[in-house]
Structures are given as structure tokens and as C-alpha cells.
Amino acid sequence: MAVNSSIRTDLALEAHELACAASGGKSPDGVEYREETDGCVKLMYVKVTNENGEKSTGKKIGEYVTADIGRLWKDETETFKQKVQYISKTISKMISGAGGGKCVLVAGLGNRSITADAIGPRSIDSLLVTRHIKNTTPLIFEKLGLCDVAAITPGVLGQTGIESADILKSLSDKIKPDMLIAIDALASRRLSRLATTVQFGTDGISPGSGIGNNRQTISSETLGIPVISIGVPTVVDAATLAADAIEAVAAKSGVAPEYDYEKIKEVLCEGDLNFFVTPKETDIVLKSVSELIGYSINLALNPNLNYEEMLSLV
């Protein structure tokens, strides 16, 4: 047996890789793939077009963009700035594709108390929130030409006793935004992709799905407004890591990888060893990535601002 399609991953790019491996190296029916390079950022597009594509990838019909941002925390200031600008262009395209919006709600999902799950709340810390300015000083708001932006970090079910989807639905019904941007941590099947990639999608997001803790889906179907999801892989589970290592060893030896993923997972779970692994520099790593996301959203929603002006307002 080669690659097992049940390997845990939230990335459409990796789901496509697994589907290709299962179909002899070709994209399965209903899945289209392309890539391009925009400056110092590589963009990989996976488009699921029909039910066959949904079945083979486990992803809903729609387009998913994965940006390879590299080791952001090691970048010089100018390189970081360029990546923010390139990522903001990707977000702008998704906003336009979703119909645009003069009022946007941004949700930072996850548990701020757990570093690997704090990418959503930390991104909100770098967000330019303006709804209060519009409501209290409308003349200044109009003069600056800002987008009407509200933000929330709803926490997790274990902290609030309320599903994040229910909180966002109630808030959405109250303030009536044109769209929601949801930011969350994801799980990857490759250590090399932890905090070095960002996934964008329009199919919504299921908080906790990366660690097998599925909550209510946050999507256009449940909220009644367009939803753009932004996710960063921050963890890989031990079973997936073991499978990844076997594949790497097999590739060096020039042979096909042979393993039973479910058996690996079963053995690790029996010994309480199926941990989730995250980079050792997680605090530094996620600080850089969350700033990238927050700043990129700021520029995408406020095209009249340049990078330096945006920083002065955050």
C-alpha cells in the first residue's frame, strides 16, 4: 500500500496530493490544480468542481488557495512587508469573488491560552478595527476612507459553553456584516508546512476539525453571508508524522512507501502516544504569522492605505 487517504490534514493541497497518489499520480476527476509565483510567495490552487472531487479529497466544491510563505520569522523587514502585500492581494481577490463588502466581521477562532491554537485570536490583535469609529465619529471615518470592520474572538466551547458558530450567527444577525472572515489553526501532514503555509477558502471552516474535535461548521449556509476562511497549519499528529517519516525514508531509498496508517494510529493511541506536534519556536513563529494575517487583511479591506500608514493605525 502506498499513501493512505485517511491521513489527517486540513489542507486542500495535501488532500489533493493524497488523492493524486491514490489515482496513480494524476489529479482525480473533479479536481483541478495549478500554481503560480507572486513575488516571494508561491500560490497553489486546488479547485474542486463536482461530487467526485469532493469524494476523493474530502473537500467541498470550491477553490482553495495555499500560499507558501516560507520561514516568515526569519525574514528581513522588507521581505516581510512584501509578503504581507502579496497575501493581501490574494485576500482582495477572494473578497471580490465573494461579492465584496463595506462591512466585514472578522473572527479569530481558537484558544488564546494554547499557543498552537492561538493563531486566530493573535491575528485579531493586529487587525485594524473601525466599526466604533464609524459609529462615534462618522466624519473622520469617511475622511480616512476606511472599511467598516468589526472583530471578535469567541473562544472555544470548553471556555464559553457556546458553539462558536452560534456566537457568530447571533452577532451576524445583530450587526449584519456583508461577509465574515474566519481565522483558525489547522493540522498538516507535513512538518515542513507548519506555519510556513496559509490556506484560503470559501467553503467555511469547522473549528477543531484538525485534531478530530469537530464543532458546528461556520459557513455561508449556517450564517447566511459569504465566509472566507484563513487557516494556518500549526500541528501535525504523531501518526501522521510517523507516516511522513516512512515516506521520506522510502523516497531516499527509491522504493514505494509501505505502511498501514490506521495500524500506526491504533498502536500510538493504545499507548497514549498519539500526540500533536508543533514547532519548538511556536511563540516566535506564530507571532510573525499572525501579524502577517492581520496586516494582510488590513490592506485588503483598506486599499487606500499603504503599508506604513496601516502600521501607524494598528
Largest sheet composition: 9 strands, mixed
Mean pLDDT: 88
Low-confidence stretches: 1-5
Q: What is the radius of gyration? A: 20 Å
Quaternary organisation: single chain
> What is the element string, with H for helices and E for strands?
HEEHEHEHHHEHHEEHEHHEHH
Overall geometric form: globular
Strand content: 15-25%
* SS element count, helices: 13
Structural class: alpha/beta
Q: How far is the N terminus from the C terminus?
A: 51 Å
Strand tally, please? 9
- Bin the helical content: 40-55%
Provide a descriptive summary of the structure in words.
There is one protein chain. This protein has 314 residues and is an alpha/beta fold. The protein has helices spanning 12-22, 51-57, 77-97, 119-125, 131-136, 138-144, 157-160, 164-175, 220-223, 238-253, 261-270, 282-301, 307-313; strands spanning 31-38, 41-48, 62-68, 103-108, 148-152, 179-187, 197-201, 227-237, 276-277. Mean pLDDT is 88; it is low at 1-5. Helix 4 (119-125) crosses helix 12 and helix 10 crosses helix 11. Helix content is 42%, strand content 19%. Strands 1, 2, 3, 4, 5, 6, 7, 8 and 9 form a nine-stranded mixed beta sheet that branches.
